[in-house]
Amino acid sequence: xxxxxxxxxxxxxxxxxxxxxxxxxxxxxxxxxxxxxxxxxxxxxxxxxxxxxxxxxxxxxxxxxxxxxxxxxxxxxxxxxxxxxxxxxxxxxxxxxxxxxxxxxxxxxxxxxxxxxxxxxxxxxxxxxxxxxxxxxxxxxxxxxxxxxxxxxxxxxxxxxxxxxxxxxxxxxxxxxxxxxxxxxxxxxxxxxxxxxxxxxxxxxxxxxxxxxxxxxxxxxxxxxxxxxxxxxxxxxxxxxxxxxxxxxxxxxxxxxxxxxxxxxxxxxxxxxxxxxxxxxxxxxxxxxxxxxxxxxxxxxxxxxxxxxxxxxxxxxxxxxxxxxxxxxxxxxxxxxxxxxxxxxxxxxxxxxxxxxxxxxxxxxxxxxxx
Length: 371
Known about the structure:
By secondary structure, the chain is mostly helical. The protein has one domain. It is built from 12 helices and no strands. Helix 3 (77-104) packs antiparallel against helix 7. It starts with a helix and ends in a 19-residue tail after the last helix. Mean pLDDT is 79; it is low at 171-188 and 353-371.
C-alpha cells in the first residue's frame, strides 16, 4: 500500500508541470475573449496594461509577504535591476508592441507572429546556454524537430482554412463566421513597420522568459519575484501610457467588459501566469514553458466551436494535430534531458563526493550539460 501511494505521489509530481502549463493556456484563451470585448467598449491598451498589473500586484503581494517572509533572499541592487528589466520586457514592451503591431497589420497576422515564440525562445536559450543541442543524440534532435512542427502547425491552423467539417460543427443552422474578427484588418496597414513591431513583441516575451530563468537563480522566491515584476510593470507602464496618451479620460472605466478584462487579465494572465511560469521554468527551463503556447489556439478553436457554434475547418484540424505532435516531440526530448541530468547528478555524487559542486535543474548549464 505504501509503495502504491509513493508511485501515485511520484506520478502526480511529474504531471504537475504539464497540468500547470495546459491550464495556463486555458487562461490565455479566455484572455483573448475578454480583451476583445474591452476594446469594443473603448478600452485603451496602454491603460489595460497598467490596470491589469495594478490588480496583479494587489492580489500577489500579500501572499508573497506572508508565505515567503522567512525564505525570501536579500534584494540586492543587481537583482533589483533585473526586476526592473523584467517589468519592462513583458508588461510594457511585449504587450504594447503586440497591440500596435496588430493595428498596423491584422489580428490574423499578429496571432501568427505569436506562434513563433517557441522557436525564438529555443534559439535564445541556445545562445544564453540554457539549452544545449547534441545532433548525435536523438532527444536533442527531437527538440529541434518538435519546435519546427509546432510552429508549422500553428501557421497551418491560422493561415489555411480548407473545407468546413460539418460533422464537427455543433449547430449547422447557426450562422457561424467563416471569417472571424481576427481575419479583418484593423485600421491602416503598414506591412513593414507592423511585422517589425510584432517581431519585437515576440523577442521581448522570449527575453522575459530567459531573464526570468536567470533571475530565479539569484532570487528563488517565485511569489515575491512575481509581485515585484507586476509592481515594476505598473510603474513603467504608467510612464509610457502618460507619455503616449495625453487624454486623461481614457483612464476611466466602468462596471462593464473593461473592468472584467482588467480583473481577469490581472489575476490570471499576469499574477498567476508569471508565478506558474517561474515555478515551471526553475524545473524545466523556458523552452518547455513556451512549447505549450500554441495549444491556446486549439483551445480557442474548440471553445469557439462548442460555445459559439463556429464552423471547424480542415486546416484547423490539421494544424491542431501538428501542434500536438510537435509538442509531444519537444516534451519527450526535454524529459530525456531531465533523466540524463538526474543520472549525471547521481554519478557526480558518487565520483566527486562532498568536495564537488553539483549541477541542479534550475542552474544555467555549462557546455557539458545536456539541458
